[in-house]
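Risk register update: the risk of archive-format incompatibility is retired. Evidence:
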Amino acid sequence: MKHIEILDAEGNVTNVIVADEAFAQQQHPGAWRVAAVQPVREPAPVLRRITRLAFLSRFADSEAVAIDLASIGATAQAAGMRRYMSKVNAATFIDLDRADTRAGVQALEAAAMLPAGRALQILDAPVQPSEEYRG
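Archived output:
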């Protein structure tokens, strides 16, 4: 399939269609040409959406325990941790490229809930087929 320019009697382009040459000739005999420049199709964006279970599984057990322990109590830090986890648990899926997802995991590292460098490992590891959200 190509972009075909449909021409008027003076040779001016009146329309552009996507078709093969046989169709163009059948529908517009002698009044068409293949467009000189074919549009470049942008690749579809790669969605990095994973299930909640897959997201939580990206944390080591020791990291998950540290996060859970930090959520206990009546401090602002504990309430913030509970709020973050309630968002994770309420989500339909986790978008690893979403700004608030990235900020939340990086905040866990900044609060020493995760070792240095772990936030990017969790966020940027390739999405495995078993992790993909297929909703």
